[in-house]
Model the fold of this input.
Amino acid sequence: MPEITWQKSSFSGSAETNCIEIGATPHTFALRESDSPTVVLNTDRPQLTALLRHIRTSAARTGSL
Done:
């Protein structure tokens, strides 16, 4: 697997731990939590889009974003 450059979520604030990070390879996206960097969720564009849509919809309903 190619080396992944990780990007921290802008919602994570300035703390170096407890944040969500995303990285990309030519064909997939990878997600991980900074406090557990060896556990990586790999997904493709349609699945990531569906996940983000679900999170936004749920957050809008609960007013949590």
Summary: DSSP finds one helix and four strands in the chain. The mean pLDDT is 85. The first strand starts at residue 7 and ends at 8.
